[in-house]
DNA sequence: GCGGCTATGCCCAGAAATGGGCAATCCCGG
DNA sequence: CCGGGATTGCCCATTTCTGGGCATAGCCGC
């Protein structure tokens, strides 16, 4: 593990960053030392009750940054979507191992390449309900990605995200609109695709009561429809992904 | 970092496990060396198109294991839910920092304590669309949790989950039911709580067409209702959490 | 070029969800 | 012991969704 000392050094440097400027400098140095040309760290905090906050530290070409922000491409960026699907870092060239790429996605990647961004490696961290972030390292088009440094990049990226999380403030969890047990059950079965009537049969109560539970649950979250109720419960951790997982695929 | 060598040793031991039995032995040893009494590793693979697979390796008391499996408590286990909300390991005593605890949740934790499981530390890893897993280390009731070992446990747990992932087979992603661009947009706005009519206004097309897109999207996933369509798209990475996040809180 | 897929538009009937009001019982905490 | 919340039950009117069928136009690949 000849890179161990480098990793340690870079990680220490980054975790010591107490301001965005220092994080930029540390990441810039780290990317350079690992053989990358570019880096970008994005961190978004949400949920919990307070307003969200976000951080973007990067040295991407202005041309690309302007396009990205100008057209609000973060909403469709396939790299970002893939980041929400991986627990480890991934190379951009393998992004279609994680998500299906639409025509528009390929176009976006092509434009990025034309703007001076070649292949890259992204370390994602996602916390449904709290925050989502990614730390990417990239090379110029046609440049070779330093494969032997991906392991180091994985650690450095994770440390950088932890640092960003500290900088942006972790915030404390506020249980906000905790649902009652019965409401939670109704939401859960609803997320599993059951109608109010089916849920009623399962729980052994009247359909009207299920409707009532869902109604109150919607009011707690101040949402008008079932879709959002389910998503809110999911984000809040009131129901889990695995609670639902087994129900939509096998059927 | 006096524990560094121990961590390295345990991690190496665990990552060398090529069978479930060896993983059990390695984890058993690791838990012991770190000062824990109990451990439990759960790993569930899903998505991608193939059948799911799961692994459960633990040395929890039989009494508790029987109750847990018998009553299918995994569906309500607050520790598991919290694991889906944290990117780092967490102590069970702090579980309410991550999710709201209902009365039933507290009851479940109480029963666990009565079955011989005290405080613990869980390392979660979650990949929407591929797998979810957790590796927990626990002590007997009234025993003190080895706080100085949590950092080691974090690494050991992550290594164990990676090993489990290898053992269970990673499988490859099959793009299965990729939605078209238009369908994706309709699903996205639907997830944001818009009705078909509203979505139509936003996209500048007829409401009937939006309905049609959503209809075909449902057929692709073979789901009968909008809730599940959205969840499927979410799990597949066709839409991202952050795509929806900004829409339900601020409104 | 032709078949397949995509996007667009429209119609209909039945099922489900939504929003509102009303009322009973039970249990927990102040 | 009383108030508030949780749970249960029912009614109504309106909106939305779902599943079916039908048709046109454009684009891409074989």
Rg of chain A over CA atoms, rounded to whole Å, is 22 Å
Biggest interface goes to: A-B, 69 and 68 residues
- What spatial order of strands do you see in the largest sheet of chain A? 2-1-5-4-3
Report the structural category of chain A.
alpha+beta
Alpha-carbon distance between the two ends of chain A: 47 Å
CATH fold-level label of the largest domain in chain A:
Beta-Lactamase
Provide a count of the helices of chain A: 11
The CATH C-level name of the largest domain in chain A is Alpha Beta
User: How many structural domains can be distinguished in the coordinates of chain A?
Assistant: 2
Oligomeric status: homodimer
- The shape of chain A, in one word, is elongated
Corresponding CATH architecture of the largest domain in chain A: 2-Layer Sandwich
- Strand content bin of chain A: 5-15%
């Amino acid at each position: 593990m000849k890179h161990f000392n480098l990793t340690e050094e870079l990680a220490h440097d980054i975790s010591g960053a107490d301001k965005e400027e220092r994080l930029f400098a540390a990441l810039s140095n780290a990317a350079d030392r690992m053989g990358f040309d570019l880096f970008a760290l994005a961190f978004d905090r949400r949920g919990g009750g307070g307003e969200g906050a976000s951080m973007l530290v990067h040295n991407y070409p202005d041309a690309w940054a302007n396009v990205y922000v100008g057209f609000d491409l973060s909403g469709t960026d396939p790299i970002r979507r893939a980041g929400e699907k991986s627990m480890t870092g991934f190379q951009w060239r393998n992004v279609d191992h994680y998500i299906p790429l639409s025509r528009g996605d390929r176009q976006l990647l092509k434009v990025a390449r034309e703007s001076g961004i070649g292949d890259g490696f992204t370390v994602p961290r996602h916390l449904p309900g709290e925050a989502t972030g990614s730390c990417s390292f990239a090379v110029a088009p046609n440049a070779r990605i330093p494969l032997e440094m991906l392991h180091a990049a994985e650690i450095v990226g994770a440390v950088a995200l932890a640092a960003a999380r500290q900088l942006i403030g972790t915030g404390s969890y506020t249980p906000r609109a905790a649902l009652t047990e019965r409401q939670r059950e109704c939401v859960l079965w609803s997320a599993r695709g059951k109608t109010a009537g089916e849920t009623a049969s399962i729980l052994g109560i009247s359909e009207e009561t299920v409707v009532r539970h869902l109604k109150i649950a919607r009011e707690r979250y101040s949402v008008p429809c079932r879709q959002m109720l389910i998503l809110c419960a999911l984000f809040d951790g009131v129901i889990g992904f695995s609670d639902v997982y087994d129900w939509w695929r096998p059927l």
